[in-house]
Design goal:
Layout lengths: L2 E5 L4 H12 L3 E5 L8 H10 L4 E3 L6 H10 L3 E6 L6 H6 L1 H22 L3 E7 L23 H19 L4 E7 L1 E3 L18 H9 L6 E4 L11 E2 L1 E3 H16 L7 E6 L5 E2 H12 L5 E4 L14 H7 L7 H19 L2
Parallel strand pairs: 1-2, 1-4, 2-3, 4-5, 5-6, 6-11, 7-10, 8-13
Antiparallel strand pairs: 9-12
Length: 343
């Protein structure tokens, strides 16, 4: 089995990707300091796979500790890098935290990878690199706009760092996966998005609202130039996103890449408004979502959704789930998780 090092393996996207990687014959080593994740995720992964995955509780900004992990796993053939802070509102409040953590962590893992002779690298980028574009759907050659937040700026800078790194190290190869808004949970209902303090992503907030944990959901802006006045996003099921990482890794390991650094959009190619997401949540749960229309939120892009033709052509990737599947699996996970917490 080919061994892969996954940073941020206990996070939402990282944990589901680990499941997909192992189910496709890879051995996985995780690095996650649990700053924004829980060690309980490892138990969920084991429940699905029937075996444990090793995790190192190390901060990527600690270069000596990081290098020791890579030295211990000299047989690793690839790295998938998820570990980063990702809250847009928090990044506006604490920009230095985001620039230091996200960029230093990336630089360190690229250096550790170089020192260990690993050549294949997958980067967790974001549709936020496109900024407030009016060119929809976005394609990989769509010009990058002004970053709307320090978080988005770290993704733009991260891509530039990797591209420069690949130019300077022609024996290395990288894929930058620009993905859209992940949601949903593993179909087993055993793994999903763990709650975080100060969550800002719509789907976990919707789950809290429909469960009554929040008195109501605030829709940030109802006067945008969209079909119903609310922001539009491309929601992708978490297992579709995990599958894209596995396919991208195989693409590199099999030497099918034509350039040292390549970019792929990963989204379902459809825009869903906030009000449409609310309706899908109500359909999945059979309950009403209490909400009100509030003022616009700083850092929010009006509308963005993907063209994924390049991923379909070169990676053989296509989405299997839609917004109703996303909300249905997210709802099942929430019920299972909360029932387990209550004993």
């Amino acid at each position: 089995m080919a061994k892969i090092i996954v940073s941020g393996g206990c996070g939402y996207i990282g944990s589901h990707t680990i499941v997909d990687l192992v189910n496709n014959g890879f051995e996985v080593i995780s690095i996650d300091n649990h700053l924004r994740s829980s060690a309980a995720v490892l138990v969920c992964i084991e429940a699905i796979l029937g075996k444990s995955v090793q995790n190192y509780e190390v901060d990527l900004c600690d270069m000596p500790a990081l290098q020791l992990i890579f030295q211990e796993h000299v047989d690793a053939v690839g790295v998938i890098h998820f570990a980063a802070l990702k809250s847009v509102p928090e990044s506006l409040q604490q920009p230095l935290l985001y620039y230091n953590n996200n960029l230093q962590g990336l630089c360190n893992i690229l250096q550790a990878m170089t020192n260990s002779g690993i050549s294949s690298f997958i980067f967790s980028s974001s549709c936020s690199v496109y900024g407030n574009t009016t060119a929809l759907p976005v394609i990989e050659t769509t010009a990058l706009g002004q970053a709307e937040s320090p978080y988005a700026a770290t993704k733009q800078m991260g891509e530039r760092i990797i591209e420069d790194f690949i130019i300077a190290n022609p024996d290395k190869k990288a894929i930058l996966l620009r993905y859209f808004n992940p949601g949903g949970a593993h179909p087993s209902g055993l793994l999903g998005e763990m709650p975080q303090k100060g969550i800002s992503n719509l789907i976990p907030i919707l789950m809290e609202a429909v469960l009554g944990i929040r008195s109501e959901l605030t829709v940030h802006g109802g006067d945008y130039d969209t079909r119903d006045g609310t922001c539009i996003r491309d929601y992708i099921h978490i297992m579709d996103l995990a599958d894209a990482h596995t396919r991208a890794l195989r693409y590199l390991l099999e030497g099918r890449n034509k350039q040292g650094s390549e970019v792929f959009n990963v989204g379902i190619g459809e825009g869903v408004s906030v009000l449409e997401a609310i309706k899908a949540t109500e359909q999945a749960s059979g309950r009403k979502v209490p909400y009100l229309i509030g003022p616009r939120r700083a850092g929010d892009v009006v509308a963005i959704y993907a063209n994924y033709e390049r991923a379909a052509l070169l990676l053989g990737w296509r989405p299997r789930y839609n917004i109703n599947d996303i909300m249905a699996t997210a709802w099942t996970w929430e019920l299972n998780r909360r029932n387990a917490e209550m004993g």
